[in-house]
Design brief:
Elements: H1 9-12, E1 15-18, E2 23-26, E3 30-38, H2 47-63, E4 68-76, H3 80-92, H4 96-114, E5 119-130, H5 137-162, E6 165-168, H6 172-183, H7 185-191
Antiparallel strand pairs: 1-2, 2-3, 3-5, 3-6, 4-5
Helix pairs in contact: 2-5, 3-4, 6-7
């Protein structure tokens, strides 16, 4: 019988090294930059504003003449703390109308949560650059980092015209946290 070789998670992950400003070097010598997008609430805009936003978004897509990946991460909200706080406030309440409204509100929240309609969404754009010349790795790495940062600023500028905010990650800890959220969203929800 042939023995199975157990690999560590680090061997399985395609990540070689985390660099500065949210840039990650992959094992295939390509580089990615993860950008968090804080979106606007499109549904609250007027028809004229919606049209302007769509036109700005079209310009964004035309301007980004490089590959991007848009990632939407949906997480079910943990509302237990919120419900617990309401129940604590109910213990102090004397007004029957407020008590009744609060209980109805708790039932409503629990119903929405059971139907999985309560979720938060995180939006990310991932840009990638491949290092084609492995022999000149150090020189190319500087050029690649500069190129990814230029692309980030282009994305940031274009999306700001739509009303969105683009944020880059600065520290290794921030990058590890967001990568962990990609691979294990159930634990991520509980640590928010």
């Amino acid at each position: 019988m042939k023995e199975q070789q157990i690999s560590s998670v680090q061997e399985w992950l395609p990540i070689k090294k985390i660099l500065e400003k949210g840039i990650i070097k992959l094992k295939d010598n390509s580089y990615i930059k993860i950008i968090k997008i804080i979106p606007i609430n499109y549904n609250l805009k007027s028809e004229l504003e919606k049209e302007a936003i769509l036109n700005s978004y079209k310009i964004f897509l035309k301007t980004c003449n490089f590959d991007i990946q848009i990632l939407i991460q949906s997480n079910k909200e943990d509302l237990s703390k919120h419900i617990s706080n309401i129940k604590k406030q109910l213990e102090k309440e004397n007004n029957e109308n407020i008590i009744k409204l609060s209980r109805n509100y708790i039932e409503f929240i629990q119903k929405i949560n059971k139907e999985k309609k309560s979720s938060s969404k995180n939006f990310y754009i991932i840009i990638k650059k491949t290092n084609k010349n492995i022999k000149e790795n150090i020189i190319n790495e500087e050029v690649i980092i500069e190129d990814l940062n230029e692309k980030y600023f282009k994305i940031k500028e274009c999306l700001s015209r739509c009303g969105n905010v683009a944020q880059e990650y600065y520290t290794k800890e921030e990058i590890i946290k967001v990568l962990s959220s990609f691979f294990n969203s159930r634990n991520y929800i509980n640590t928010k």
